[in-house]
Amino acid sequence: MNGAILVLSGPSGAGKSTIIEHASDQIGEYYFSISTTTRPPREGELDGVDYYFVSREIFEEDIKAGQFLEYATVHNNYYGTSLKPVKEALSEGKLVIFDIDVQGHRLVQAKMGDFVTSAFITPPTLNELEKRLYARSTDNDTVIKNRIENAKKEIQAVNEFDFVIINDVVEIASSKFATIANASRLKKSAEELEKLVIHWQDGSK
Ligand code: 5GP
User: Fold this and answer.
1) 3-state SS of the chain?
2) How do residues 21-71 score in pLDDT, each as one tens digit?
3) Is CB count within 10 Å lower at the N or C end of the chain?
């Protein structure tokens, strides 16, 4: 596999999708991994674009069938990444971008560490996150409170990531994201490094 994986985590409302969209013409060809979830679609979200929206029964069948690279329960719903499209994109040499939670990051890191670069994206403060979640008004009070509680836990895992992007001004955050995305393509697996050493030694004769 020649591709690379870039894992993005951070609280809902951190602006991950906006940042990717903003930087999309600066990061070359990439595949954005569309997750499967049991959470109901928000207004404006489309099946097959934002997520694959499925029932708990279907999700649990997919778990049994071993279809997920990783999955986790977030905010009382299942979220998971299907293995097949990721493998295909990697074998085509693409950069695969994941928007997954910190549990998902740990699992992907454990399985595919060689290919993984990670960045945690967050608004500057908890207050600002709260403001943004209420301003986008896509969730009710209980859901927002649940997301804020989850965000307080997720920030504790920030030191597990290679990079942190504070999303204060979206243009600046997007430009930082583009730098990280382009650098992540240059990451070499242990196998590639071994080959490089052999080639380097042979070439010096
Ligand atoms: P939201 O409901 O706001 O779209 O997403 C809630 C959280 O679930 C976010 O932190 C997002 O990164 C995470 N998430 C989305 N897809 C996946 C996935 O496939 N796996 C995991 N582990 N987390 C996911």
Assistant:
1) CCCEEEEEECCCCCCHHHHHHHHHHHCCCEEECCCEECCCCCCCCCECCCEEECCHHHHHHHHHCCCEEEEEEECCEEEEEEHHHHHHHHHCCCEEEEECCHHHHHHHHHHHHHHEEEEEEECCCHHHHHHHHHHHCCCCHHHHHHHHHHHHHHHHHHHHCCEEEECCCHHHHHHHHHHHHHHHCCCCCHHHHHHHHHHHHHHCC
2) 999 999 999 999 999 999 999 889 999 999 999 999 999 999 999 999 999
3) C
- Looking at the structure, tell me whether residues 77 and 161 fall in a common domain: no
Check whether residue 41 and residue 2 sit in a common domain: no
Q: Are residues 42 and 112 in the same domain?
A: no
Q: Are 148 and 63 contained in the same domain?
A: no
Q: Provide the residue range defining the domain that includes 118.
A: 1-29+94-205
List the CATH number of the domain containing 10. 3.40.50.300
Q: How far is the CA of 198 from the centre of ligand 1 (A)?
A: 41
Ligand 1 pocket: which of 73, 75, 99 to mutate (most atoms within 8 A of CB):
99
The whole-model pTM stands at: 0.91
